[in-house]
Amino acid sequence: MKALAVRPGVAHSAHVAELAPPQLEDIPDDRGVLVRTLKVGVDATDAEINEALYGNAPPGSDFLVLGHEVFGVVEAVGSAVTHVQPGDLCTCTVRRPGSTVYDQIGRNDITSDEVYFERGINLLHGFLTERFVDDAEFIVKVPVGLAHLGVLSEPASVCAKGIEQAYLAQSRLQVWEPKRAFVTGAGQIGLLTAMMLRLRGLDVYVLARTKNPGLKQEIAEAYGAQYVSTEETSLEQLAAEVGRPDLIVEATGNSGIAFRCMEILSLNGALVWTSVTGGNRRVEVPADKINVEWVLGNKLLVGTVNGNRYHFEKGLAALALAEVMYPGVTERILTTPVHGIENYAEVMRLLTEDKTALKVYVEVADL
Questions:
Q1: Are 135 and 161 found together in one domain?
Q2: What is the tens place of the pLDDT at every residue in 207-245?
Q3: How confident is the model over 311-364, as pLDDT tens digits?
Q4: CA distances from 171 to 248, 300, 315 (A)
Q5: Fewer CB atoms near the end CB (10 Å): N or C, the chain?
Q6: Are residues 188 and 289 in the same domain?
Q7: Residue 170: alpha-carbon gap to chain centroid
């Protein structure tokens, strides 16, 4: 069985690996779900793992199968599985339980174990293969009506979780009604976040380097957000013009911008970091100024990573509502399909060289 894999620690080692076909019996207690992979989204995480910036192979293996954004169809289930049946469309969560109390209550997405297990990222094979099997706990049903957006299930869960975490944390203020939000970055996470914030009624500004006009601007504005090219207007200039944002979701993958966001956040504001940045970038920041403003201004910084099944369900619900509110817009994010696992070189080229590819995904099989 074919899989797209890398050798962690070896830069540019993407290759086609062979895996034994998965079996329901691989999962104990008759809780297995066998899935035929249809599509797998790829992003900067996959590119950075291929560049050997992070990622580790499962124990006993010298390679790691990539892919953490999966959409597939159920082929078989164990006798204890009830929420999905053969023929159902599905996705799958990414992080797996560790040993902490958070893991024991089903919140493995916020485990406090320093060693964590994520499919396609760290210590567990991913989904960029023809079939996979997993415990029913991690399988999330995708409505038939969202089949055309199923490959966005995982990124949508990240956005839903990040927004939810900000609102939950801001309950500390008793009354928090954000009006203005900045979203830095106009990739899949930035645009999906903008959509979800618009569904909440916020005035949303999406900031990215790409100059107007263009597809990113068209999608952002179709959601009712305003698109701002940072080649024309800086983060600081925008804040001076329209006012400081109550909420910022940082989704550029650039740690320098993540720290610049700290300087312009409004009093009582919340900043959500979604980027996982590999490397050794160093930036200078006005540390004293930030420290004083954050202490006196009661500001909040939240880091968010991939979610649990609840966040996947929230993300799918937002995708469904957006199809009603902004019909046909979200599908425009899916710009760049690559057919077949064997075309891995093209996948990596698109991720690292093609600046016009908004969302790259691999078509593994037809429905």
A1: no
A2: 999 888 899 999 999 999 999 999 999 999 999 999 999
A3: 999 999 999 999 999 999 999 999 999 999 999 999 999 999 998 899 999 999
A4: 17, 11, 21
A5: C
A6: yes
A7: 22
Tokens of 241: 């013009």
Tally of domains in the chain = 2
With respect to residue 324, please indicate whether it lies within any of the assigned structural domains.
no
Q: Mark whether 137 and 166 lie in a shared domain.
A: no
CA pair distance 218, 118, nearest whole angstrom: 34
* CA dist list (Å): 78 to 29, 37, 67, 74: 8, 18, 24, 11
For residue 122, what is the domain's CATH number? 3.90.180.10
Whether 238 is in a domain gets the answer yes
Alpha carbons 261 and 6: distance in angstroms, whole number:
34
Q: Are residues 161 and 135 in the same domain?
A: no
Residue pLDDT, tens place only, 83-138: 999 999 999 999 999 999 998 898 888 888 988 899 999 999 999 999 999 999 99
* Collapsed DSSP state (helix, strand, coil) of residue 197: helix
- Bridge partners of 187, per DSSP, are none
Q: Is residue 314 part of a domain?
A: no
From the list 305, 341, 318, the residue with the least C-alpha distance to 40 is 341
Residue 277 lies inside a defined structural domain of this protein: yes
- How far is it, in rounded angstroms, from Cα 199 to Cα 163? 12
CA distance 163 to 274: 10
Helix (H, G, I), strand (E, B) or coil at 228: strand
φ, ψ (nearest 5 deg) of residue 167: -65, -40
Look up the pTM and report it.
0.95
